[in-house]
Design brief:
Layout: E1 4-5, H1 14-22, E2 33-40, E3 44-52, H2 63-67, E4 70-72, E5 75-79, E6 85-88, H3 90-103, H4 111-124, E7 139-148, E8 161-170, E9 181-185, H5 203-218, E10 223-227, E11 235-238, E12 242-247, E13 252-255, H6 264-275, E14 280-283, H7 287-296, E15 299-306, E16 310-319, E17 322-324, H8 331-344, E18 355-357
Parallel strand pairs: 1-3, 9-10, 9-16, 13-14
Antiparallel strand pairs: 2-3, 2-8, 4-7, 5-6, 5-7, 6-18, 7-8, 10-11, 12-13, 12-15, 15-16, 16-17
GO molecular function: branched-chain-amino-acid transaminase activity
Catalytic activity: L-leucine + 2-oxoglutarate = 4-methyl-2-oxopentanoate + L-glutamate; L-isoleucine + 2-oxoglutarate = (S)-3-methyl-2-oxopentanoate + L-glutamate; L-valine + 2-oxoglutarate = 3-methyl-2-oxobutanoate + L-glutamate
Family: Belongs to the class-IV pyridoxal-phosphate-dependent aminotransferase family.
């Protein structure tokens, strides 16, 4: 893919950028440039370009606004102490976007082109990748996304599609230290069913979780837990994170995929925990096993994982008629978290080959 670059005539000045990077938050500030490439059946992918970050123009009849044909990814770039910039498993994000493309009837952007788009944009906006000075967790969040941009009111796959990448500096997910999140078990709403879009990273899955998240917030909880749609008894995932359960014999269980998103952090933890000597099993996980396991002490830790939070311990689980207290420990959770973060930021050897150097 040949990429043209037009640099911004008014990039963010150094003083303002320093102010942003000192306290970047999450998803509120955006770098100076963006990547765009378009697709039609006749031309394939064409006009790949990096341009100044700016609003985009969509026709009111753009298919994405009416039929939600869109997908996205989330990943990060990290500045190591020597000033080099690295991405964490971008090939896995590219492969997952291919799977999402198939599910949403969108054209496939091949892995090398996905990587080129991400890497060239990060190189152009390299000064937006924060420093960490040894032990911080600031990074550059990267958001690739694809949507149906054809102007057409008809229910069929769009014949004009746009793929874009934008980036945003991100601070540590946890302000004031890592604290266990309190979870609400929704017994009314489900996230996805058999044959649905649960395994695709598409906005509709997140939109459908918002009312359940409101329910969680109204009940004093941080996140919502979804059960399967068929039986209403098997744990699937949170609104935006995957779950893990640690047992008193050191074994670990995570809910099997199929109707849940195959998280990149999730798969990384399976490998990492295995190398640390823990047996990790992917299987159906009954909500009663959670309740009874924590109460009896059989389950010693519960944690969640995702790109933004990396790994976070889980505290109590609440529902309309009851509550399970927080598990007894967070020891393994925090050791797994530290091991993963140390690889991402170059503070530990990458024995898995996960990191890809950008500059």
């Amino acid at each position: 893919m040949q990429i043209t670059t037009s640099l911004s005539a008014n990039p963010t000045d150094d003083a303002r950028l320093s102010e942003i990077l000192a306290n970047p938050g999450f998803g509120v500030n955006f770098s100076d440039h963006m990547f765009t490439v378009e697709w039609t059946p006749e031309r394939g992918w064409y006009d790949a370009r990096i341009t100044p970050y700016a609003p985009i123009t969509l026709d009111p009849a753009a298919a994405v606004l009416h039929y939600a044909q869109e997908i996205f990814e989330g990943m990060k770039a990290y500045r190591h102490d020597d000033g080099s910039i690295w991405a964490f498993r971008p090939e896995a994000n590219a492969e997952r976007m291919k799977r999402s493309s198939h599910r949403l009837a969108l054209p496939v952007l091949e892995v090398p082109d996905f990587l080129s788009a991400v890497e060239e944009l990060v190189k152009v906006d390299a000064r937006w990748v924060p420093d960490n000075h040894g032990d911080g967790e600031k990074s550059l969040y990267i958001r690739p996304f694809m949507f149906a941009s054809e102007s057409f009111l008809g229910v069929r796959p769009a014949e004009h599609v746009t793929f874009m990448v934008i980036t945003s500096p991100a601070g540590s997910y946890f302000k004031g230290g890592i604290k266990p999140v309190t979870l609400w078990l929704t017994e009314e709403y489900t996230r996805a069913g058999r044959g649905g879009m649960g395994a695709a990273k598409t906005g509709g899955n997140y939109a459908s979780s918002l009312v359940a998240q409101q329910e969680a917030t109204a009940n004093g909880c941080d996140q919502v837990v979804f059960l399967d749609a068929q039986d209403g008894r098997y744990v699937e995932e949170l609104g935006g994170m995957n779950l893990y359960f640690v047992f008193d014999d050191g074994s670990i269980v995570t809910p099997a995929t199929g109707t849940i998103l195959e998280g990149i952090t999730r798969s990384s933890i399976i490998e990492l925990a295995g190398k640390m000597g823990h047996q990790v099993t992917e299987r159906k996980f009954d909500i009663d096993e959670w309740r009874e396991g924590v109460t009896s002490g059989r389950i010693t830790e519960v944690f969640a994982c995702g790109t933004a939070a990396v790994v976070t311990p889980v505290g109590s689980l609440k529902w309309a008629d009851g509550e399970v207290p927080a598990p007894a420990s967070t020891d393994l959770t925090m050791r797994i978290r530290q091991a993963l973060v140390d690889v991402q930021f170059g503070r530990a050897e990458d024995t898995f080959g996960w990191m890809r150097q950008i500059s």
